[in-house]
Design goal:
By secondary structure, this protein is mainly α. 63% of the residues lie in helices and 0% in strands.
Length: 151
């Protein structure tokens, strides 16, 4: 309701259209959060002729940055641990995968104690799977190269 339509409605009912604030009805617009502050602010705005044209609702999203970082690092460590299958890349990929897996484990473990826990738990499990895959592939390659007599 705009100020002009408010004045027209009062004039149509035969009420005075004086700018006296005490004669205006107080109307509040609540949005469900911080009711005291919002009610006071919007009542003040309505009493002084400023009627909000639309509601603004603040949406806050809870995020877990460490859990998400641990999840992403765990995925990267698994990808790098599969690269350990190639003999020429084992010297580069194995240490990188081990470092990423260690960081993923630490970040995910810390992230488990924060809300939301979804990515943190997934990163924790994937980091453990990454360690297993990396150890299996690395030991298989080293065993194969030892049997060939190249190491």
């Amino acid at each position: 309701m705009s100020l002009e339509s408010y004045r027209q409605a009062r004039a149509a009912r035969g009420q005075s259209v004086s700018p006296d604030v005490s004669q205006r009805p107080t109307q509040t617009y609540t949005s469900g959060y911080e009711r005291g502050y919002e009610d006071a602010r919007q009542t003040y705005a309505f009493e002084h002729g400023f009627v909000p044209s639309q509601q603004y609702i603040e949406i806050s999203r809870n995020t877990n940055g460490l859990g998400t970082a641990g999840f992403i690092l765990a995925i990267l460590s698994i990808i790098l641990s599969f690269c350990c299958f190639f003999p020429f890349a084992i010297l580069v990929c194995a240490p990188a995968a081990a470092l990423l897996c260690l960081l993923a484990f630490i970040f995910s473990f810390i992230g488990i104690f924060r809300e939301p826990r979804g990515f943190a738990i997934a990163g924790f499990v994937l980091s453990l799977i990454g360690v297993i895959v990396m150890l299996v592939f690395s030991s298989a390659i080293i065993t194969f190269l030892t049997a060939l007599g190249r190491v």
